């Protein structure tokens, strides 16, 4: 209706109708059929449509002699011609042989005839998916061509010039990546028991403390008779954050002794030691929220050089190869690890951030990265080399955006605020204590009502936890105001506490996210959230966030994170407009907005306010303009569902209580088993606690496996509107994964053959010797990781997209020896060829194909000239 109306408004148009058509490649295309008179001008019509309509709704225009009608008088859209009458000849005049070859590809993908060098890919109906498919075909002759080349040169003549400049492409890498050795895999499996034993220490400490307090009291016959000295000693060792962090640092330093910068074999001794050190840190919870105020001291104990006045709000590398200069700033979720797996090699290097330099949220500083004094790295960037002093770099890979870094928000010196460290320590312990208080509340209900009421008590405990999070965020919001504030101040502490507790809440209260209740939850927290909003695991500062009607916030979106600079913290209001979309891992920085009907794609950042306009779409880092196809799905299944579908969704989402209750039962089972061992002897409980946790992990993995097959069955490629039973059943199965499978099993076994076996049970095709350091494979049946392939830490093998409120699923394949770099995302229908590498913080577009034995990097990816075979390997 709306599109037909806009077509009829065009000068010289007597009749019009829009219809969806499918090309020979299977792509959907929106075509506007026009009956015109002599005054019609195609260029003018296209210009007017672009001014009046969102880019995604502008159809490809086709002039026809008449519009067929039904007996009712309405236009018969099924009778409109398709394919369109061809104007092609064997060799279109005015086209070179190369242009004709490109035109043939466009014809297959778009169903369009290319007759002139000025023909525009997007004017002919191209979008992001068809662009990736077209580039995949072009790479058969020109391996170095990137999707960005097509966006920058959409006319066939200009694109042909770029292809000629590229030539036949680079020589293929002479590299064959072998599978991980069985000896390495066996070593990892054997290490799981002592690692889980370290984690069991915290369980034992809590049980001994509870027993010391409650032994001999009526109704607490389960309590173990244990001396207070033993209970306190165990609690100090495993529960007091500085002590626990010191123990972790000691073990990590022992494991990594002698490991320095260099390149090592994947699956070799150094790689295994690095994996083990990372697991020790996780199992001892050395970098938990409770220990956040001691993070700099922990980094120094690992060997890092942290200067006074530095703000470190991200995890330090276990290698200790980190240098932070005075008054430097590292924002949340920055990857400072300094290592990654590249095919059959492991790269390890030092990371340096100079005096008064700053690194934006969700960036990655790779091995050898050096951010010089006074320089700035924008959020979501990748640095693999040196950023010169005082310059501003952004993007993946990072490039110079301006000669001067952005000036500080004020020239004033922040107050010393030394006593505010104590405030951060108290706040961190308070946040960490919230689940403990919820457990006590649930336990009190059990004591009062009896064990038969355990399910009600469990729900009561979760309700108390949600209420505590809500109260803490609301109290903090009293001090949260837009602007810049000293990091060590009441306002800075309030912002930090809000972000920390809501980050934890995404795990503690996962069933409240990606659900119909999520907008309600966000409103209760203080955010302005409109009608019909869909939100997943979004992280925001509620006091400053405005999400308008029918907006969509996908998984792990970061909306308005705080910024740091020279002892100051800045927060600003953020707005997401009506029907706007922010994709998975998308970011909207402080003070920015996403206008109505706009889109920020997967792993992408919203542009500055002056650059972004309503109805536009943006991709990558730095963000570039994106064209996307229009949605043709029934609004009753996307934006305006009937009541029966709302009721159906509510009933299915009530099923999220099941994994919550199973988690409670699993906790009680572990506690009961450990208490039985502690009755024998405390040392027996400590020694065999790892066995108990491993068995609990197996139970959680099997429950998740059973839920997946019972609720969803086998995933297949296809589209499903948001308001459909399949989507909600799929989300319910994912709740089992996030609540049971991930914390108890998958996060513990990442990078091991044990995780590979479980993923195979869930339907994924996992070959021999695969290194998979991520469990984020949403629709496992659609994933194929062939022999020797690598999925680095922080990666998402994204087998679905949710644009325009339609779940679109397709396969993802990593062929023999292929590598997906850390913190990267590969989208549906994409393939990484044999022994090819996609580097860190990269985005492989939907439908894209990476040629075998080549190297790619970027968001979106482009050719990477770096040659790993020239790097000398250490043993």
TrEMBL record:
Residues 855-875 are annotated as: Disordered. The chain crosses the membrane at residues 419-446, 452-473, 657-678, 684-707. Gene3D superfamilies: 3.30.300.30, alpha/beta hydrolase, Hexapeptide repeat proteins. GO terms for cellular component: cytosol; enterobactin synthetase complex. One of its GO terms (molecular function) is phosphopantetheine binding. The keyword Transmembrane helix applies. Keywords: Membrane, Phosphopantetheine, Phosphoprotein, Repeat, Transferase, Transmembrane, Transmembrane helix. It comes from the Bacteria. GO terms for biological process: amino acid activation for nonribosomal peptide biosynthetic process; enterobactin biosynthetic process. The keyword Transmembrane helix applies. Residues 93-167 form the Carrier domain. InterPro entries: AB_hydrolase_fold, ACP-like_sf, AMP-bd_C_sf, Hexapep_transf_CS, PKS_PP-bd, Pls/PosA_C, PP-bd_ACP, Trimer_LpxA-like_sf. Pfam families: PP-binding (PF00550). This is Carrier domain-containing protein. It comes from Ornithinimicrobium cerasi.
């Amino acid at each position: 209706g709306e599109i037909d109306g806009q077509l009829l408004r065009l000068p010289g148009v007597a009749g019009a109708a829009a219809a969806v058509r499918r090309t020979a490649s299977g792509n959907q295309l929106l075509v506007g059929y026009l009956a015109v008179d002599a005054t019609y001008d195609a260029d003018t019509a296209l210009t007017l449509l672009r001014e009046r309509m969102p880019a995604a709704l502008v159809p490809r225009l086709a002039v026809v002699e008449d519009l067929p009608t039904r007996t009712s008088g309405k236009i018969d859209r099924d009778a409109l011609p398709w394919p369109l009458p061809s104007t092609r000849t064997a060799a279109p005049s005015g086209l070179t042989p190369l242009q004709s070859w490109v035109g043939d590809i466009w014809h297959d993908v778009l169903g369009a005839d290319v007759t002139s060098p000025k023909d525009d890919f997007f004017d002919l109906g191209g979008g992001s998916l068809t662009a990736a498919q077209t580039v995949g075909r072009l790479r058969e002759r020109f391996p170095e061509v990137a999707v960005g080349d097509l966006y920058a040169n959409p006319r066939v003549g200009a694109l042909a010039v770029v292809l000629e400049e590229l030539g036949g492409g680079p020589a293929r890498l002479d590299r064959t990546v072998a599978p991980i050795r069985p000896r390495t895999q066996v070593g990892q499996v054997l290490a799981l028991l002592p690692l889980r034993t370290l984690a069991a220490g915290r369980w034992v400490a809590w049980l001994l403390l509870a027993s010391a307090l409650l032994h001999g009291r009526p109704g607490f016959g389960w309590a173990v008779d244990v001396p207070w000295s033993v209970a306190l000693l165990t609690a100090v060792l495993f529960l007091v954050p500085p002590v626990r962090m010191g123990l972790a640092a000691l073990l990590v330093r022992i494991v990594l002794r002698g490991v320095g910068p260099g390149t090592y074999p994947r699956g070799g001794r150094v790689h295994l030691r690095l994996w083990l050190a990372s697991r020790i840190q996780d199992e001892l919870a050395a970098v938990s929220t409770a220990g956040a105020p001691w993070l700099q001291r922990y980094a120094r104990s690992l060997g890092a050089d942290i200067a006074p006045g530095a703000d470190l709000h991200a995890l330090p590398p276990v290698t200790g190869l980190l240098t932070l200069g005075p008054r430097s700033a590292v924002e949340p979720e920055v990857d400072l690890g300094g290592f990654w797996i590249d095919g059959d090699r492991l790269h390890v290097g030092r990371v340096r951030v100079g005096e008064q330099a700053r690194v934006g949220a969700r960036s990655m500083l790779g091995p050898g990265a050096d951010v010089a004094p006074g320089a700035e790295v924008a959020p979501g960037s990748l640095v693999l080399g040196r950023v010169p002093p005082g310059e501003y770099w952004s993007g993946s890979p990072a490039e110079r955006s301006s000669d001067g870094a952005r000036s500080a928000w004020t020239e004033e010196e922040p107050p010393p605020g030394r006593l505010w460290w104590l405030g951060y320590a108290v706040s961190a312990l308070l946040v960490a204590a919230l689940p403990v208080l919820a457990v006590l509340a649930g336990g009190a209900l059990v004591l009062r009502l009896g064990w038969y009421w355990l399910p009600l008590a469990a729900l009561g405990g979760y309700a108390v936890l949600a209420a505590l999070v809500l109260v803490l965020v609301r109290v903090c919001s009293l001090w949260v105001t837009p602007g810049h504030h000293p990091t060590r101040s009441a306002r800075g502490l309030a912002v930090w506490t809000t972000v920390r507790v809501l980050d934890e809440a995404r795990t503690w209260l996962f069933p409240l996210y990606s659900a119909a209740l999520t907008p309600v939850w966000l409103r209760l927290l203080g955010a302005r959230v409109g009608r019909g909003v869909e939100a997943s695991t979004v992280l925001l500062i509620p006091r400053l966030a405005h999400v308008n009607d029918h907006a969509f916030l996908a998984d792990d979106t970061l909306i308005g994170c705080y910024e740091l600079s020279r002892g100051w913290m800045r927060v600003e209001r953020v707005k997401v407009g009506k029907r706007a979309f922010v994709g998975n891992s998308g970011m909207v920085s402080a003070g920015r907005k996403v206008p109505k009907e706009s889109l920020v794609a997967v792993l992408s950042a919203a542009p500055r306010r002056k650059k972004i306009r309503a109805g536009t779409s943006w991709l990558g880092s730095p963000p570039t303009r994106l064209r996307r196809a229009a949605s043709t799905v029934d609004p009753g299944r996307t934006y305006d569902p009937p009541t029966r579908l709302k009721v159906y969704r509510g009933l299915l989402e009530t099923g999220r209580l099941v994994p919550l209750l199973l988690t409670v039962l699993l906790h009680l089972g572990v506690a009961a088993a450990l208490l039985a061992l502690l009755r024998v002897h405390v040392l027996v409980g400590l020694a065999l606690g790892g066995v108990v946790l491993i068995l609990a992990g197996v139970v959680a993995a099997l429950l998740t496996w059973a839920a997946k097959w019972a609720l969803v069955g086998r995933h297949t490629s296809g589209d499903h509107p948001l308001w459909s039973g399949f989507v909600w059943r799929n989300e319910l199965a994912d709740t089992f994964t996030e609540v049971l499978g991930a914390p108890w099993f998958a996060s513990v076994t990442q990078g091991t053959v044990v995780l590979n076996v479980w993923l195979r049970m869930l339907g994924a095709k996992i070959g021999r010797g695969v290194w998979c350091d991520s469990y984020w494979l949403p629709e496992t049946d659609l994933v194929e990781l062939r022999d020797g392939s690598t999925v680095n830490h922080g990666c998402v093998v994204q087998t679905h997209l949710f644009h325009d409120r339609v779940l679109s699923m397709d396969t993802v394949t990593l062929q023999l020896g292929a590598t997906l770099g850390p913190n990267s995302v590969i989208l549906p229908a994409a393939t990484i060829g044999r022994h090819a590498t996609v580097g860190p913080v990269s985005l492989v577009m939907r439908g894209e194909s990476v040629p075998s034995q080549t190297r790619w990097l970027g968001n979106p990816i482009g050719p990477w000239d770096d040659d790993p075979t020239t790097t000398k390997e250490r043993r």
